Amino acid sequence: MSEYKQIDKFIVCTNKQLGQGAFGQVVKGFLKDNHAQQVAVKIISLQKVASESNFIKLLRREIEILQKINHPNIVKLHYATRTTNNLYMFLEYCADGDLKKLLEKRGGKLPESEAVQYFRQICEGFKELYKNNIIHRDIKPANILLHKGVAHITDFGFARTLDCSGMNNQLKMTYLGTPLYMSPQILAEEYFSSKCDIWSLGMMFYELLYGRTPWTGKTPNELLENIRKKPLEFPEQPPRSEIVKDMLRRMLVYEDSERISWDELFQHKIIKFDNEEVTRHLAEIELESNALYKSAARNEYYVNNIRVVGVDKKMQINAFNTDKDNLMELTTVGEDNSTSELQVKESSDKINMEKVAEIQRQQKQRRDQIMKIDSYLTFDRNLGIFVNFTTNMIFKLYKEQVLKMPEDLFYRIIFLLQKNQLIGFQYLIDCMMDKTQQSKFPAEHWKNYISSKEYQETLQMIRQDIQYVKPYFQEVYVRAANFLQKIENSPKIKEFFSILNQELNMNDQNFQKILKSNLQEFIDEAFKLVPNTTNKKRELLQCIKYTFICKNPQQTFQWKEEDISSSDFHEFYDEYDNKSEQQLLDEVVKDLKTVEENKQ
Hints:
A hairpin with a 2-residue loop joins β8 and β9 (150-153). It contains 21 helices and eleven strands. It is α+β, with helices and mostly antiparallel strands. The relative contact order is 0.09. The protein has a seven-stranded mixed sheet. A two-stranded antiparallel sheet has the order 7-10. A two-stranded antiparallel sheet has the order 8-9. The model is unreliable at 163-175 and 330-348 (pLDDT under 50). It has helices at 46-49, 53-67, 99-105, 112-131, 184-187, 196-210, 220-229, 242-251, 262-267, 275-285, 291-305, 313-319, 353-399, 407-432, 443-450, 453-484, 491-497, 509-529, 537-551, 567-576, 581-599; strands at 4-7, 10-20, 24-31, 34-45, 77-82, 86-92, 134-135, 144-147, 150-153, 160-161, 339-343. It holds the Pfam family Pkinase. GO terms for molecular function: ATP binding; protein serine/threonine kinase activity.
């Protein structure tokens, strides 16, 4: 048997299986005229389903649904056709597995911030489904495919298109889907609405956060009984925010009619992260009359919402893009979405599969090179934002009079940290614009990267970072210069004046030396406050710990080229946002002891 065959404009690789089902399989394929354009091919044996009239209806429905959907968070149907023996569906190929495999790889759960990013993407896909009156009925981690960090809803075999009224009206349909994630109404074979998908989404979101679903059962009936009898509970570990618990409480309501609606879900604070919401909040900040407080509040709001960039750059860029005419396109125009009901002949014309394999190997190698470089630049970007986040902690605690220290030290520290961050950002921009020659990656790899969409997204992301960060830095610079001029005769301040400017020089060794000595001075002064601090002691200790990290951030954060979702940063914040006061104190004392030992 041949290892490939031609179906219309596609080549199907029959020996490269991606999945197997009762009535067929999913294999790899590619375009005949573009061997680098890979697809996933769903092959259904017509002989096996000949007596399964219901299954044939489901297949037709899946094709009809995918035909009219074109969204970056929904797997795309390129083409569908049938031959004498088989039905073929040529689907978008997602190279990075699915959420189920990601959970297995990551120990069963994700940090909250990362889980929320995936959840937002999936909800973006559901906005499109809801708009088209489609219910999925089989949402689970295995049906969320991943490609370059982007989530794609797949497997519409159990999906159903309803009229507009049917999306919210009660329906009774066949018992379909995966029992563990099924709504109780479907499990009980009762009437239900499109909110059955909200239940399944809630079950999956809970699993992303806690590593298990809130209810289990050996059989569907046992699962239903457990849902009926046991209230929704949240484990103490890992700690999760009240906002995600609120979302889950509203999604996992037993009665369909009392469950959160789709419109309410899309407006929830977790999901409603768009340009309209950001513009409204920034307008409120503009009412602040103090220029420093205004720039600090704007900077803080930006950093808190884009603390880690990984899987959803486009969404984050567009949310904070003040130029509404220049939003990044989220929906890509597909190729051929048409479905052919014609009988076509299966062809086995000679193809040099070794040559095809080499082309695809080179394509994968190029993709890996692009993602590796993008991962590195994104890592450096997230590192800069960590420094900014630390500055925001210092500013807030000083404003609240928790950090009671000399005013000159306060201005020196926030100036130094903000300048340090901008030096890093400017260097990244200069490298990306070829104003500074980068030496980290081979020239050919870099050439491939700057022609990619990942390059465009990351460049726009860092430019936007600078747009929000720089006004704060400039305001801090003016305030610091004005205040420090009053005491410029002090030897320490005289030295500081040598770097008190807006020059962003990556190779300024004097700046780095003054940065580290001032950071240590700040740490020593802040730690003296700990014994007598009663209010916000934990926040003070966390601030001191983060300032320690700013002295040498590469000791804490290490770039991993395969980490395209910035999981290390997500996990870091997940851990430190939930450390106890005692745990933070122990770490700070240990860090101080190390500093003393290194002096000897």
